[in-house]
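PROTEIN DESIGN WORKSHEET
SECTION A - STRUCTURE
LENGTH: 469
TOKENS:
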């Protein structure tokens, strides 16, 4: 029976390790409607949790961007020890000055001649400074104008909106999968009911064939044929039940629910519910789609990026100021006697970009190309949405028509089975006839359930494509 593979396909991404996990610890019982399932997933699903954390991460990123526009204040304390004070060599200006005075005063040398300065006075080598230096101060810097920082400030809310929209896109993907799996599992109750009814029929057929065999009206082959068909159906029910159990495990994983917990679905599904609110082909807008709005915000961020790089080509202005005290000692005794000398400054720095090796132009072009890519993605998504809606309408219409046809076929197969059974009971029908009728009924029921599943998926795909889910 093909229907049982639908849940497996819908849950093909679920790791087998999860399916095999067992926990004997105490478990909770959850009775959920489909909306309660979605609400639970929005709180517990890991993908949704991480998407929500991205908002918090962006908030902190925005704080760091805002911080760049605030005054930056820092303090510093420094102590430096020079075991060997640096020796400096410089022209012998002392000798030059001395000779200058002697020449000016007309002082004579030992030979009675006026003293004359030599051509080269040489150099003096001396160590300047103290063994210990210390400083303590505070500095302040403030951006007066920086175009890139201001663009960053303007883009803060758009960045938050972008991450929020990412949450909504993630939630929508999770929601669509939950709806599909939930309603498939809800519809599986009908399949189990049909299997139970068929098993009951075959058990009665087997019993009746046994009684007829005892009285010599049928052959042993007729009894064996009924037994084989009953065993096959009972085995089929076990296989179907196992698929359903795995489907529940998969739904729990989507919800972020522990595998050990019990999940009871309170919503049901039927043909009327599937056909509810049949579609209007033009009843949708691009902005109804979360992923479309997500791309639009991404395009806005790319526009900010272009502006940021363009503003990198204009001057920036910064104000800096500082105040400190300095101390010089030959011993580590900064807290004893001795002077601390104050020092302060205020500076205005204007940086004028003149030539940056064409880096700014390259960044601007790159950002503009990325903006074009974002616009192309939006255009492509518009085409994709139109295509998805058109396909979803076709698939939904076909699925509903197929469902109606398979329901009629199932009803007809049941009528054929009932008529064949009456003939068998009156002795004018054979066991082979009723076995064939039973097989045809099983196929018709399986096709009906398969059509019901397809209709559920088609409706959810349509609602998802139009942004109405």
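SECTION B - SEQUENCE
RESIDUE ASSIGNMENT:
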């Amino acid at each position: 029976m093909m229907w049982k593979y639908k849940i497996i396909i819908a849950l093909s991404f679920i790791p087998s390790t999860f399916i095999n996990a067992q926990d004997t610890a105490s478990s909770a019982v959850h009775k959920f409607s489909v909306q309660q399932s979605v609400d639970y997933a929005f709180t517990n699903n890991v993908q949704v949790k991480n998407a929500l954390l991205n908002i918090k991460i962006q908030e902190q990123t925005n704080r760091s961007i805002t911080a760049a526009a605030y005054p930056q204040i820092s303090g510093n304390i420094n102590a430096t020890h020079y075991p060997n004070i640096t020796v400096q060599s410089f022209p012998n200006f002392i000798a030059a000055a001395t000779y200058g005075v002697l020449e000016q005063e007309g002082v004579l040398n030992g030979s009675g001649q006026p003293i004359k300065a030599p051509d080269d006075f040489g150099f003096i080598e001396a160590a300047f400074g103290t063994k210990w230096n210390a400083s303590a101060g505070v500095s302040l810097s403030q951006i007066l104008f920086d175009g890139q920082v201001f663009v960053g400030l303007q883009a803060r809310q758009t960045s938050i909106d972008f991450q929020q929209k990412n949450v909504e896109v993630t939630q929508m993907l999770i929601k669509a999968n939950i709806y599909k799996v939930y309603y498939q599992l809800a519809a599986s109750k009908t399949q189990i009911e049909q299997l139970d009814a068929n098993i009951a029929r075959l058990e009665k057929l087997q019993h009746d064939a046994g009684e007829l065999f005892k009285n010599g009206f049928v052959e042993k082959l007729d009894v064996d044929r009924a037994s084989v068909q009953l065993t096959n159906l009972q085995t089929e029910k076990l296989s179907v039940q196992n698929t359903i159990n795995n489907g529940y495990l998969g739904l729990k994983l989507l919800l972020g629910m522990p595998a050990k917990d019990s999940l009871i679905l309170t919503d049901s599904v039927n043909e009327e519910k599937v056909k509810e609110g049949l579609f209007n082909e033009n009843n949708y807008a691009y902005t109804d789609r979360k992923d479309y709005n997500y791309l639009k915000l991404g395009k806005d961020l790319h526009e900010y990026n272009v502006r940021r790089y363009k503003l990198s080509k204009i001057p920036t202005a910064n104000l800096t100021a500082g105040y400190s005290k300095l101390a010089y000692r030959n011993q580590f005794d900064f807290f004893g006697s001795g002077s601390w000398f104050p020092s302060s400054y205020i500076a205005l720095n204007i940086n004028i970009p003149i030539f940056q090796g064409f880096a700014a132009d390259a960044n601007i072009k790159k950002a503009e190309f990325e903006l074009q890519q974002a616009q192309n993605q939006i255009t492509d998504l518009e085409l994709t949405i139109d295509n998805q809606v058109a396909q979803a309408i076709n698939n939904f219409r076909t699925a509903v028509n197929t469902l109606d046809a398979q329901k009629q076929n199932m009803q007809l197969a049941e009528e054929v089975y009932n008529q064949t059974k009456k003939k068998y009971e009156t002795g004018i029908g054979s066991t082979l006839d009723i076995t064939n009728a039973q097989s045809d009924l099983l196929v018709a029921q399986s096709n009906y359930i398969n059509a019901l599943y397809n209709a559920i998926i088609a409706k959810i795909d349509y609602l998802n494509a139009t942004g109405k889910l």
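SECTION C - NOTES
The radius of gyration is 44 Å.
The chain has twelve helices and eight strands.
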